[in-house]
Specification:
The chain is α+β, with helices and mostly antiparallel strands and about 230 residues long. The chain is about 35% helix and about 15% strand.
Length: about 230
């Protein structure tokens, strides 16, 4: 019985080996034939398929001409450049000569009308000048200490955005106001120091301007506790 089982197992293993060999030959043969027939694709000048056209181009329509919007012009090419003195601007705009030019600082609780009265302008002239300026600058937001340069024919003051507001009295047309670009030279400055007790004292010792320090504290105030 044992010999019969052993002989059957031996015959089964031989049959399985023959079947595996036959499968190997059957699979290897077609794969080798396919590999032999594969060749690289060569373009002989035949046009390649084009992408599907957009169906919108097939619909009936009329050709129209469209003007492309122009870019916004630079303000420096439109607005005049400010001058070193108001006297120069008055002479360039009206041809009038000024005999004096003084600088007045806006005081606490003072408005532009009061400052112009201190500069020697009448109430009528101050009112007419303010009516021309009011559309170009917020007169309620003028800071204390603002410098206003004034002559007998007009005045001017600077704003934060690098512009100057001029108000000039013409002998024929009366008061007129306009905005001028103030030439600004920009450069990078570097300063460093050690904070012992106060950042303000350390900045003053390092010759950092108060305006730059205030801007730095405003920007970094959400990330740094300057009280500690």
């Amino acid at each position: 019985m044992i010999r019969s089982l052993a002989r059957m197992a031996k015959d089964t293993s031989r049959s399985a080996l023959r079947f595996a060999t036959a499968l190997t030959v059957c699979f290897v043969g077609p794969v080798a034939a396919i590999a032999a027939t594969m060749e690289p694709i060569r373009i002989d000048g035949t046009a390649l398929p084009q992408p599907k056209p957009d169906f919108v181009s097939l619909m009936p329509g009329e050709l129209v001409e469209m003007t492309v919007p122009l870019t916004r012009p630079d303000l420096s090419s439109i607005l005049p450049k400010s001058t070193a003195t108001v006297t120069e601007m008055v002479l360039a705009q009206t041809g009038q000569q000024s005999t004096r030019e003084d600088v007045y600082k806006l005081q606490s609780g003072e408005g532009l009308a009061t400052l112009l009265a201190r500069a020697g302008f009448t109430r009528a002239d101050a009112s007419a000048a303010i009516n021309e300026v009011i559309g170009r600058a917020s007169l309620r937001a003028l800071p204390v200490g603002l410098e206003v340069r004034a002559t007998e024919h007009g005045f001017a003051f600077s704003t934060k955005n690098g512009r100057e507001i001029y108000a000039i009295r013409d002998a024929e047309e009366g008061w007129m106001a306009f905005t001028a670009i103030r030439p600004v030279e920009r450069y990078v400055a570097y300063a460093q120091g050690i904070i012992d007790d106060s950042i303000y004292r350390a900045a003053s010792a390092s010759d950092i301007p108060d305006g730059a320090l205030a801007e730095y504290i405003r920007v970094m105030g959400f990330s740094v506790d300057f009280q500690r």
